[in-house]
Structures are given as C-alpha cells and as structure tokens.
Amino acid sequence: MESKSLAILKQYWGYDEFRPLQHEIIDSILDGRDTLALLPTGGGKSICFQVPALQLAGICIVISPLIALMKDQVQNLRKKGIDAVAIFSGMSKREVDIALDNCIYGRIKFLYLAPERLHSDLVRERIRYMKVNLFAIDEAHCISQWGYDFRPAYLHLTKLRELHPAVPFLALTATATPRVVDDIQDKLAFVGKQVFRKSFRRENLAYMALAEEDKMGRMLRMIHKLGGCGVIYVRNRRETAEVSQFLVNHGISADFYHAGLDAATRSRKQDSWMDNKVRVIVATNAFGMGIDKPDVRFVLHLDVPDSLEAYYQEAGRAGRDGKKAFPVLMFQQADREKLWENFQASFPPINFIQKVYHHLGNYFQIAYGAGKNMFFDFDLVDFCKRYQLEILPTMSALKFLERDGWLSLSEAVFIPSRFKFDIDYQELYKFQVQSAKYDPLIKLILRTYGGVFDFFVPVNEFEFAKKMKTSYSNIVDMLTGLQKLQLATYLPKTDAPQLEFLQARVDYKNLFIDAPFILERKQIKETQIKAIYAYLDTKDCRSKVLQAYFGEQDDTDCGVCDLCLQRQHKAALEQKLHMEIKTVLLDEAKSVKELVDLLTIGDDETKIAAIRQLLDDEKILLVDGLYRWNVGF
User: Domain Helicase C-terminal spans what residues (predicted)?
Assistant: First the structure.
C-alpha cells in the first residue's frame, strides 16, 4: 500500500519520500478510518488527502473555507493532469448544476466545496449520487466554537455523513487545543478516535516578543541584520501602505497587500514577493494562507494578534526550509488596550444585531417574506457608511446572523466572467448566418474555447476587444445581447463577497438570536486574549508556552527564543563574575566595599547579588567582616 502511495507521490509531485506523519495518515485513510491530522503550517496537509484519493475509485470531496486557496489547488491539480472542480459562492445555479453533473458522470477526482454550499438541497442531493471515496475537511478547527475561527457553516458537515455513512472523514488543521481536538471529532461524529499530531515545536524558529516604543526603528534594524525575505503583519489596510512606503523610503524593497485590493493586483504583488522581486511584503492577515515559500527568514508582527492560534499560524510561515528564522512580535501597552477594545466591540448587543439584519433587508430592497436563497454582491464598507454603522461590530453581527441560519457570507474572491451557449451547434450556425453583428464574436469564442456548449468557460472581455479591435463595452454589450436573445448565458466577473439570504425576510422583532451562544463565545474569546497576554508576559521559554497552550508538554527549553537567550546571557555573565570574584578573593580577603570596587563585570546590584549567591552556596566565607574564598571549591 505504501509503495503505491510513494509511486503516486513521485509521479505527480516529484518527491521521493513523505514528510513526517504523511504516510501514516494516508494509511489510516486507506484503511477506511476517520482521521484527524494536526500538522503545522507548511506541513503538507493537502498531500494527505490527494494521494489516497488518487488510489481509490471515485471522487474526493474537499471542504475548505478559503475560496482563493480552493481555486489555487484546483488549478495546481489540473496542471498535473488531475481532473478537479470547485463550487463556491458567486457561481450561478446552472454553473453549479453542470459542475455537479461532471462529478457524477465525468472523470472528476476532486470536488472542492465551500462549506456554505451544503445549505443547498441541490448540492446535497447530487452528492448522494456521487461515488465518494473520502471527505477531506480543511481548517477543521472552524467547526468548533472553542476554536479561534469558528465558522457556523461547518456545522452542516454532518449532513455528509447522512449521504455516505461508510465514507471516512479526514479532518486537517494546523492549530487546535486539546478541547478543540475533542470537539472536532465529536462534531464530525468520528467512528473511533484516530489522531495524528506532529509536535508544535519548530526547532529552527527563534520566537521573540519585544516591548518596543520605537517599532519602526527596531523593524529597520532587524530587517538589515536578519537579511533574506520576510512578511510584516499589521492590523489594518492603511498601515500596510504606510509601513511599506516607510521601508521603501529607507532603501528596502517592499510592497503591501490586503483584501481590499482587486484580485489581479493581489496576485501580482504576491507573485513578485514569491519570485523575490520584492523582499518584504507588508500585509493584513488576509495574506499567507496556502502560500508555501520556504526561504522566509522573518515574520514580524507590528500589532498583537487576537489569539495564539492566529499568531502560531502566521509566525509559522517563516523558516519552512528548516533553516533558522525569526518570528518577532513587537508591542506597546497601547496595543494591549486596543486588543481589549476590539474584543468588546466584537460582541454587540442583541438589538444591534437585529438592527443590522433590518438594514440588510432595506439595503437589498427585499420585501418581507421574500429573499430566500437570493445572492448579492456585498460591499461592507458601503453598507456601514449608508447606515452609519461601525465596521467591527457589524462584521460580528453578520457572523452571529450566519450562525443562527439567517444568512451566509463568503470571503471576497475574484470570479472571472463566464459564458456558455444554451443552444446546439446547428441552431447557433443558423443564427450566425443571419447576424453579421454577432458572427465575428461567436467565431472567436468557438476558436478560443472548447466545451462552451457543455459547461461554463471563463472569458476575458479585454482579450476579445483587443482581437476584434473594438471597445470593452461593445464586447460586454454583445455578450449581454446573446443572453437577451436566449442563445447563451453570460455571467459578468466579480470580486465582491457574496451574501446569501438563507431564510425569507422576517420582521427584525421576530428575529431569533442565540444570546447564550454569544455569551459563551465572548468567554472563549476572552480566554484566548488572556492567553496572548500571558505569552507576552511570560518569563519561560516561548516555544514551551506555545506547546503548552496546544496541550503538548515539553520541559526542554528551545534555547533560541529571546527569553532563552537572555537566560543564557545572564548565566554566562554570572559565570564570568563568579570566576572574577574567585580570582580576587584567592589573592586575599576583602571587605564588601573593596570587593565590589575591584570587580569589573556588571553593575553594583549584579555584583552584590553574585556575592550573596556564592555565600549561600558556601563558596565564599565571611570571617571577621572580610570575605574569603572557600578553598574547598
């Protein structure tokens, strides 16, 4: 079994051997067991379901909350000659219908689904008719309300069990506390507990948490000293541009990245950094998921993350090549206070949540009793401006509305324009003969795209305009015209988040909101923030603190974090000072003042502390007011 797995690994990925735990996880799946895999960021989680799924007959269904990552994985699989599709918010009902048909009757090996798609009766019913060999649940911590990134849509995953009771589940995550590990298995109704856990210790990472008033100056010095490329995480979009410009002004190649940029710009910036054309990328936490760049030498946080899970994930993007790297968190007292303020704002009162729901109905002009399963592009900033709402509590209100089944909100992702002919080739030919206006465009579409009669294909209006020597708007008008003539379906591109109403609109006074759940989530979040504070304040080894948080006991210091280095420096200083005291006192006995004046290492407080320590250890003796070295040592 293992030799076949290795052959597939070599054939499609070019690797001669698996990373630690990968083949054990794969064997567990091939044995038909439900499996939970805890692998750190960059630990090769996707291999764990892709390799066994290729060995088994049928299709693997992958659930992921990250649409951009789904699209990347589908694209990478297709490059390897493996058939894969993704279904996510923003696709039309007909697109989804065609994609699902291909999964039932075609040769598709991987179907990637956003968890929100399981709200759809159409999707669930089609999955029932698929020959499924594995359910892979990525970012599985999202199913647990005890996790740092709870996603209500994940609670619907048990419906997959009802459709295919005998198909094993593989749950994957990089960060989970012991309570979350148990909760994942309970929520997914695991048949027997099978957990593979790689140590959270990253031997090559030198974690640091520095109280720093001059963050920008310290950042510059660290970048110059550490060399190599890196990521700098900040809290908001404005800071990404400001910090990036500061670095450029000081001669460092840098760029900024956040979710508010259009998809093409984000892709260009990410590629420039990946190709080392840009040394430093300054980003919000929107950057980094699914990016496997091995040579990142530093990850700097200029703001305090709101959980140790988030920090561990982001810091773990450093040093994937196994060489020494530096995750550094810089903070001030004001950062701690701001984190607490944001925490409070993230749990708005019930009447605020009801008000947001009411405004949403008006914003999209939905009548009472209507709106069920309707999709809309959603501009959060515009919505908040129109109704004079603060963004952070509004975002939280949307999450709570989602949890209670009123709506579903997807991440912002670029979806290109799509096109499909709705008539057969002969009817289209008749139309071309009669229409000189549309004939050139139809010929261009047919020459450029295969399968355009069978499924939706992504189209580029700018390329059409260039080849036909006309304007972009003229191409859009013609594509729209073909749709109005009922000859084709044209779906314009979008990169806005998609909001779906799951229920018909009700009066906000009749809106059910689970208040006890909100209170419980608030308590969980408070615990997570206090854990971050404890990490900042600890005097123990940073790696040990992180491991303990994730339920892994390890008594050995890492030896490379800032606190371990401080202790090593202090121990080396004490050893030198002790040797100097011995040298002075072996010569002749001294009074305390004489001894302190003769010592050259450390300040007076350090010297007195060392003398007291040696007295306690009986290495020096106090006789008639003079200190002597005990010749027994």
Answer: 218-364
Adjacency order of strands within the sheet including 488-491: 457-459, 417-421, 488-491
φ, ψ at 205 (rounded to 5°) = -95, 125
Neighbours of 340 (CB within 10 A): 14
Contacts of 473 (CB under 8 A, 6+ apart): none
CB distance 143 to 157 below 8 Å: yes
> Mutual orientation of helices 425-434 and 439-448 as an angle, nearest 10°?
150
Are the CB atoms for 51 and 301 separated by under 8 Å? no
Give the C-alpha distances (Å, rounded to integers) separating 478 from 108, 122, 440, 448.
33, 32, 11, 17
CATH class entry, domain 2-197: alpha beta
Of residues 30, 74, 37, 36, the one with CA closest to residue 53: 30
In eight-state DSSP terms, residue 251 is: T
Three-class SS of residue 385? helix
Q: What is the mean pLDDT of each run of 10 residues along the chain (633 residues)?
A: 85 91 95 93 86 96 86 89 88 85 93 88 91 96 86 88 95 92 94 91 95 95 94 92 95 90 82 94 83 90 94 92 95 93 93 96 95 87 91 92 88 75 91 91 90 85 91 92 92 80 92 92 94 96 96 92 94 90 88 89 88 89 89 77
Query: Which DSSP category does 412 fall into?
Result: P
What's the CATH architecture for 208-331+530-549? 3-Layer(aba) Sandwich (3.40)
Predicted structure pTM score = 0.78
Element holding 197 (H helix, E strand)? strand 195-197
CATH of 341-413+496-513, one of 3.40.1390, 1.10.10, 1.20.1050, 3.40.50: 1.10.10
What residues have CB less than 8 Å from 328, skipping those under 6 apart? Answer: 207, 208, 209, 210, 222, 298, 299, 300, 301
What length does the chain have? Answer: 633
Q: What is the pLDDT of residue 561?
A: 97
DSSP β-bridge partners for residue 329: 209, 301
Residue 67 sits at the vertex; the CA angle it makes with 375 and 241, to the nearest 5 degrees, is 100
* Helix orientation angle between 391-403 and 515-537, rounded to the nearest 10 degrees: 130
Please state which CATH class domain 562-629 belongs to: mainly alpha
β-pairing, 280-283 vs 457-459, is unpaired
pLDDT at residue 412, as a whole number: 62
pLDDT at res. 65: 84
At 410 the pLDDT is: 76
- Of 421, 538, 403, 442, which Cα lies nearest the Cα of 487? 421
